[in-house]
Amino acid sequence: MPIIVQKFGGTSVATSEKIVEAARKAVRAQQQGHQVVMVVSAMGKNTDMLVDLAGQITDRPAAREMDMLLSTGEQVSVALMAMAIHELGSEAVSLTGGQIGIKTDSSHTRARIQSISTERMQKHLDAGKIVIAAGFQGIDDDLNITTLGRGGSDTTAVALAAVLGAEACEIYTDVDGVFTTDPRVVAQARKMGRVSHDEMLEMASLGAGVMHSRSIEFGKKFSVPIHVRNSGSFSDEPGTVIGPLPENADRAVSGAALTKDEARITVTGVPDRPGAMHQLIAAIAEESIAIDMVVQDVGTDGRADIAFTVLEGELPATLKAAKEFAEAFPGAEVSHEANLSKVSVVGLGMATQTGVADRMFRALADAEINIKAITTSQIKISALVERTQGLDALRAVHSEFQLDKAPEPSSANGNTVEPSEKADAVDIVSRLRRMEDLTIEDVQLDATQGRVTITRVPDAPGIAARVFEAIAAESLLVDMIVQGTGRDGLANISFTVPSESVQKAVEVASATAKQHGCGPVGSEKEIAILSVFGIGVRTHVGVGVRMFKALDDAGINVEMINTSEVRVNVVVNAAKGEAGLKALEAAFADVIC
Ligand code: ADP
Ligand code: ASP
Ligand code: MG
């Protein structure tokens, strides 16, 4: 009998009436011929309330005790859900993460799943019971209760669907599906029929809180069809399918997102040599803090400035680590800026289309929004802006890319997983030691690109837009873009284009630079881009550290960096490309699947 996993989020079990409603859905699925596993979250804002209670007792609760506390929310829901199902005349059993056998590591409050035993669940299912699993929790080797991180019930649900070989994982929530952006923030947001794993991964990490991003990593790794839908709808209204294909591959941009609470740390005066960057990144990764929007500017005096963003909540810990790092380098200084937001556009289509960046920058410039930093990856462009302008920025880009309009129907059908992909997934997983281990697919060298750098760009709205409009007018395909706020408010904009386009790009950039009072335009006809890609490369904060260490040990300096959920790219000197590739292959040999 096919298995279906149905997950109900906090608002979908917020009251006894809603619990009964959810129970009806599960019973109906069972009557339609499924074995049913439900995963439930804590009722309403119960987890927030528990966090608040802990805060009334102490500012520094022990992480183990925090997990003990937070896991109780889900325990209340599963018991009530089982009672609701009994009341409807069906059989059900509630189970905690530990009772199911969800084994995790011991990193309390952000534990990773290592394995799940299916025996107990399967026995109950075969006996005709609906299994009700507590979301967001597990147990470590010493039988301590752990939790997976806020929003982690999605991850429990997709992980259970993966190990049980479920036909589908339905995520019931308080909106109709995944929208082009948060529908509570932008009224014009449109429900997407489907969205690809890679797009959803980016959107989730960039602020689309509708899904826990680690759940999408499981969905991709184990080919679990995920269907996000509204628990409040009585009809069988379809939601959004998260699968291998995008809604429409011809569209450059599929969605937009806003991360409201960003802060930026800048470390100036770092010696520009291998090792320095590695030490800084290692010091921050040590605190398990994921950094983003890394911008490195090389000065003329052999010293570099490094800036990056973190979530504002992580600012104190990040500053502490950065200051300890800076103490080792006389002349190095740490500064920071809070109250920032990051607006991003995401789309698989932008990897192969020109003229996406310039449209985004133009939309922001027209809304009189100054861009404080820019980073890109193959499928996303992020701009850092003042927090007071964050919402306007999101609305401006959503409207620029007409995300409210449904795309033309695309002939490809993304709702099913190809059998060959399923086989691949099984193959990869069989080589993993633990379910949530980092999975590196490959390490690659791209030696086809060159780099252009416009120096001393004034910190004023509209300049990035004009530069990339001029570049797009020549149909030059820009790959990476990096812009920071340099010293005295003068930043560098660096971007990569195919080597054969470097000269043209320099001409175009020079003309624009001159008009706007920028400094000279530099270029390197050939650079080497080294990439490590796979699943979980951002959430496993150690990937960047491993890369930098390997390159550092090989005496190779990193000149530019960009990261996404599935890829870390670094630019190194063209002559060091092959050596860099070998160093990275050796460094990741144990995790390449
Ligand atoms: P649950 O409790 O069901 O897990 P969440 O609150 O975690 O629900 O996620 C649902 C919320 O995610 C929605 O209410 C919506 O405001 C927010 N959200 C943010 N971005 C998006 C998006 N792109 N599409 C849909 N919802 C989004
Ligand atoms: N109850 C947990 C939280 O609020 C887990 C979840 O809802 O996914 O974060
Ligand atoms: Mg959620």
From TrEMBL:
Q: What protein name applies here?
A: aspartate kinase
The molecular function GO annotations come to:
aspartate kinase activity; ATP binding
Q: Which keywords does the record carry? A: Amino-acid biosynthesis, ATP-binding, Kinase, Lysine biosynthesis, Nucleotide-binding, Transferase
User: Which Enzyme Commission number(s) are listed?
Assistant: 2.7.2.4
Q: Which SUPFAM superfamilies match?
A: ACT-like, Carbamate kinase-like
What InterPro entries does its record include? AceGlu_kinase-like_sf, ACT-like_dom_sf, ACT_Aspartokinase, ACT_dom, AKii-LysC-BS, Asp/Glu/Uridylate_kinase, Asp_kin_monofn, Asp_kinase
Which terms under GO biological process does the entry name?
Answer: homoserine biosynthetic process; lysine biosynthetic process via diaminopimelate; threonine biosynthetic process
Q: Which organism is it from?
A: Adhaeretor mobilis
* Similarity field: Belongs to the aspartokinase family.
Per the record, the pathway is:
Amino-acid biosynthesis; L-threonine biosynthesis; L-threonine from L-aspartate: step 1/5; Amino-acid biosynthesis; L-lysine biosynthesis via DAP pathway; (S)-tetrahydrodipicolinate from L-aspartate: step 1/4; Amino-acid biosynthesis; L-methionine biosynthesis via de novo pathway; L-homoserine from L-aspartate: step 1/3
Annotated Pfam families: AA_kinase (PF00696), ACT_9 (PF22468)
PROSITE patterns, per database record: ACT, ASPARTOKINASE
Which residue range or ranges hold the ACT domain? 265-343, 452-532
Q: Which reaction does it catalyse?
A: L-aspartate + ATP = 4-phospho-L-aspartate + ADP
Tell me the enzyme class: transferase
> What would be one Gene Ontology cellular-component term for the protein?
cytosol
